[in-house]
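This follows on from our talk about sequence and fold. Go ahead and set the record down below:
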Amino acid sequence: MPGLKDQAQYIQDPEQPDRSLSFHAIACSGELKEQLIHSVLENKTPLLLAGEEGAGKHFIARRLAAAILCHQPDRSGGACGYCASCRMLRSGSHLDLIEIAPPDDKSSIPVASVRSQVAGTLQIYPQLGRNRVYVIEALKVDTLNEQGQNALLKPLEEHPGFVRFIILTEDADRLLSTIRSRSRMIRISRRSPDEIRQILEETGHGDQTAGLALRYADGLPGQALAMAQDANFRLLRDKAFNLFSRLPQSTRTDCLTGGLAFFKQERKELTVLLRVFESFLRDMLLLQNDMDPASLVNADLADDLDGMRHQEPAPNPAKAAELVRQTAGALSSNANFDHTVARMLLGLRAFLGGHPVTEQIFRSKESFY
């Protein structure tokens, strides 16, 4: 699981304590930290970390695993950072940490992997300390399918006292109710701007880069870091705005050819693109309500966005933003890519350019499939 090995940049001297493994490294509310501490010290029920993409689930899971495996955990800070367990964990692997994730070339965890790597190893005693930790990805709707979840049920319910489970998901409602009933859920919510700023500063990102990433992150630390680390992000945003600003005057053919081709070309950045489109629409709404331009996510595009919102017929950015959010939800549930993106582009053209809105631009979730 790549997300659990994301903090190598913090390590300066292997002989010094790795403080980045402790709970102090998590920029979050005191309430969340208390829940995490309680999960390590008192409640050994399988833990379900639920939060949207970029909320920091992998980062937090690493620190939970470190605290559970640590030989000398601190009651308030978690892992000590210097015992044999912590040193092994920061090296990139650990004898008592089992990570279950889809193979690199697959989107789903094979059922056989759940049976062999979880049920098949459940009775093996810890090799280094007192506990063994299983971190299991169930992020998307197909990451851990129903068969895989069923294979996990008995281990969750009947396992040795030295075994701990941490399950990661973006939407707990997608999991079987029997998985949820055997777990204790902690919701990882969005962070405050100050917390996001702290995360960016601690990872060495300068003010200019951090400023743009902070505005776009919308409370999601993973999103902020991805943008701050991506030298091409500003270029991608500018390309996206070029398409967005032309939509009101575009033809249906433009949307179904050039517009769709752009999204296909940038498909790997789809989550970022949809968030960028939503930020344009948010800024238009703020301008419609005479808010301070300094509060805009895309403050450098304020004049262009203001010009768009003064077009006739008047655009409807609220409806357009809802359509973008609906599109993101459909695509995360494996809706047909071409159909869903084309539908969004045609809808944005209609809502931003005052064109007639075709029937069923907004649809029930079921009708995407």
Remarks:
- The chain has a mean pLDDT of 86.
- The beta strands are 47-50, 97-100, 132-137, 163-169, 184-187.
- The first strand starts at residue 47 and ends at 50.
- Residues 270-288 form the longest helix (19 residues).
